[in-house]
Specification:
about 300 residues; Beta-Lactamase; 2 domains; 5-stranded antiparallel beta sheet; 8 helices; 12 strands
């Protein structure tokens, strides 16, 4: 059976938009500065473009640092909230009850957990689901459930350890492909205990890397708008994109040009950030860019955030 991605199986909600995050308005690629670089290049003197790229790289590195902090905050919210959420679901197992016999009740319980557990209410998760102790999904909190009956351990083997306590890991739901290419998913789970202390089910949540990159890009947009307002230059923003990276590739926010994502993927960001934050310059479609990349081990090993930026 082919799955829909959990956040695609909804009605009355914008796709990939569980938290009503707006896609940022990215400035057009053409700009006076970019045209100036082209002119300088035609004259054999692209020095100004290199300087511009270095400025962009410095700014991108400054942008990446607070986004790394935001990732740590987002992951911590899930880590704090999941054990409490799982404990609130224990009533579904009380007196030998089988949650599979009341999937509508399971969904209502999941929605209450999302609403009532403060950290989970603000979490960037795109779904919450209940699975049995062997990893078979029973129900999620979305209106349409493409997960029910599926073995989550197939895509996320780390869930096998959720019987013993809170776990996180990465993998990919079937059909994890977008216009920009494959996607990846971060997942977290906590055991739901029976009265005798044994694990009878597990609470599962997560988000896709590309969805999460869009959340980060929106946060960067807010920061850039505040900076522009403080400088009295509200109408001027750089071209900017945000992506999550690891050893498997780069996962950019929706609407990022594929050529930009490929250029970042060719930089081996996981390798270059092994010793700490890294910045560099790129020329993409004759425009000077700078990028700043920083590891975020709280999300997953060898994983981080990168900002690609070009001054307008």
């Amino acid at each position: 059976m082919s799955w829909q991605r959990p956040w695609q199986a909804t009605k009355g909600r914008k796709a990939l938009n569980r938290r009503n995050i707006n896609v940022p308005m990215i400035p057009l690629r053409s700009s006076p500065a970019g045209l100036a670089c082209l002119a300088l290049g035609a004259l054999g003197a692209p020095v100004g473009c290199k300087d511009q790229a270095k400025v962009s790289a410095a700014h991108a590195a400054q942008d990446a640092a607070p986004l790394a902090d935001l990732i740590n905050k987002d992951v911590a919210e899930v880590e704090r909230g999941m054990p409490e959420g799982a404990s609130r679901l224990a009533s579904l197992l009380a007196n030998g009850a089988d949650p599979k016999q009341d999937v509508a009740g399971v969904r209502r319980a999941l929605m209450r957990v999302r609403r009532d557990v403060v950290d989970l209410n603000v979490a960037k998760s795109t779904f919450f689901a209940l699975a049995d102790s062997s990893g078979i999904a029973i129900r999620n909190d979305l209106e349409e459930d493409a997960m029910a009956g599926q073995n989550l351990l197939t895509a996320f083997p780390v869930l096998a350890r959720a019987k013993d306590g809170y776990v996180t890991g990465t993998g990919a739901f079937p059909g994890s492909t977008t216009k920009n290419g494959p996607d990846k998913d971060w997942i977290a789970a906590a055991p739901v205990k029976r009265a005798d202390g044994s694990t009878g089910a597990m609470l599962v949540t997560g988000w896709s890397y590309r969805y999460f990159a869009r959340h980060l890009q929106e946060a960067l947009k807010t920061r850039l708008l505040e900076q522009a307002k403080a400088a009295g230059d509200e109408g001027k923003l750089p071209v900017y994109y945000v992506a999550i990276f690891d050893k498997s590739g780069v996962y950019s926010a929706p609407l990022t040009p594929q050529v930009d994502e490929k250029a970042l993927a060719d930089e081996d960001l996981a390798g270059k950030t092994a010793g700490g934050p890294f910045r560099g310059t790129l020329t993409i479609t004759d425009r000077a860019f700078g990028f700043g990349a920083e590891r975020t081990p709280s999300l997953a090993p060898d994983t981080g955030v990168v900002v690609l930026r070009s001054e307008t």
